Amino acid sequence: MSTTGAHVPDDRGGGRARPGPWWWPRRRSLVLDATLAAVSALECFVEGVSFAEKTGIEPGIGAVFGLLVGASLLFRRRWPIAIVLIAIAVTPAQLGFLLGIVGLYTLAASEVPRRITATLAGMTGVGTMIVAFIQMRASLRQDSDTPMPVIVITSVLMALGLTAPPVLLGLYVRARRRLVESLRERADGLERELTLLAEKATERAERARSDERTRIAREMHDVVAHRVSLMVVHAAALKAVALKDPEKASASAELLGDMGRQALNELRQMLGVLRTAQVVNGAGTGSTLAFTELGSGNASGAARTAGHSDGAGSGPQAGARQPDGPCLAELEALVEESRAAGMRVELTVEGEVRSCEDQVERTAYRVVQEALTNVHKHAPGAGAEVRLAYREAEVAVRVENGPSDGSPAAALPSGGHGLVGMKERVTALGGGFVAGHTESGGFRVSAMIPALPVVAVPTGPPAAG
């Protein structure tokens, strides 16, 4: 980029061509400028010889001068202002007709400030008008009938005809080029934004997959850990009484089988939520209907599956609200399982018992379940107290156990994910979770979960009026 002008890119063709040498953007631009310079040099050569003959100068000098002036058009893209100044300088000699027109077009189409373009265009127009006026007056000097205003108007029209069209065309090309560049920049910006959006979408999808894996792992832990822990405890008790008390051993074995079946049913129910099937509607238009199988195997699972039963008993009455997963109504059965395993558990319910949102009841149930599982693992022989409180805008649960009585602990593995899972469940609903040792040497788990009562919507037929 020079100080006297701006580089003018070739506005023809939207594709990316092979770059040209020096200041030419493409090789075909070099060919175009070389052709224009050759034509301009030939024109100025002829006009220089004619001007030398009229002024008495050596024709060879005029020819060389004309060649140099015409060939300067080769540098129009590099120094457009200089080319126009040369055209203005040789206007009195009546040289550079093509040089002036192409120079004005290049100047107007370049990035030179418009005030400079207007000034040089005005100088070119004034110079052309003066030269035309002198030439017409000299040629019509002997014709006294030609009025002066006609000569003036003709000179002005000639100046405008040689100056205005190239300037206007150059300004149009300049505006068009800027518009194309702005559109290209906007397209590039949109492409970058789309790329960023795609990256963010990928990150959100990956984060969603990670959250889903965490949720599945938490559900698996809650379902498997409690049931399997009780099964291990009962298996140890069964081994101890197998020979001494066969009847008690038989009852323990039956209870052990029931717990295994319950664990399998819960696993089937949870895995069924993750399994998506496609059913083709053969009686209609043949469209594909995607649905989620909610699983079956126990009474609650069969009741939650719309229109499907696996023979485990009929569901509740039609129109009644069915919980999604374990609920607080099953808390008494959960406590009885721990009592059957030999733990002293006391359940206390405070406040007015009501139905809450499924995720609230499920979270409270899982907190109690995991807390009792931890008592089986880490405090064998200890008693536990389970407290459930229904408050105005929340449900609170607390599970507290005393110290172990020294009974041998069952060999139950512990991954340390129980407390983390409980806290994640509670905080995800905007609640508070606290767990820690008590002064008596036991352990306490407390959770407060925001909850609003669920309003039952009647689904039966309206009463006859």
From TrEMBL:
Disordered: region residues: 298-324
GO MF entry, a single one: kinase activity
Domain DUF7134: from-to ranges: 22-177
Pfam families xref list: DUF7134, HATPase_c, HisKA_3
UniProt catalytic activity: ATP + protein L-histidine = ADP + protein N-phospho-L-histidine
Gene3D superfamilies: 1.20.5.1930, Histidine kinase-like ATPase, C-terminal domain
All residue ranges annotated as the Histidine kinase/HSP90-like ATPase domain in the record: 361-451
Coiled coil feature spans: 173-211
Residue intervals passing through the bilayer: 56-75, 81-108, 120-138, 150-173
UniProt enzyme class: transferase
Domain Signal transduction histidine kinase subgroup 3 dimerisation and phosphoacceptor: 212-277
E.C. code: 2.7.13.3
Keywords: ATP-binding, Coiled coil, Kinase, Membrane, Nucleotide-binding, Phosphoprotein, Transferase, Transmembrane, Transmembrane helix, Two-component regulatory system
Domain of life: Bacteria
Name this polypeptide is given: histidine kinase
Organism: Streptomyces fildesensis
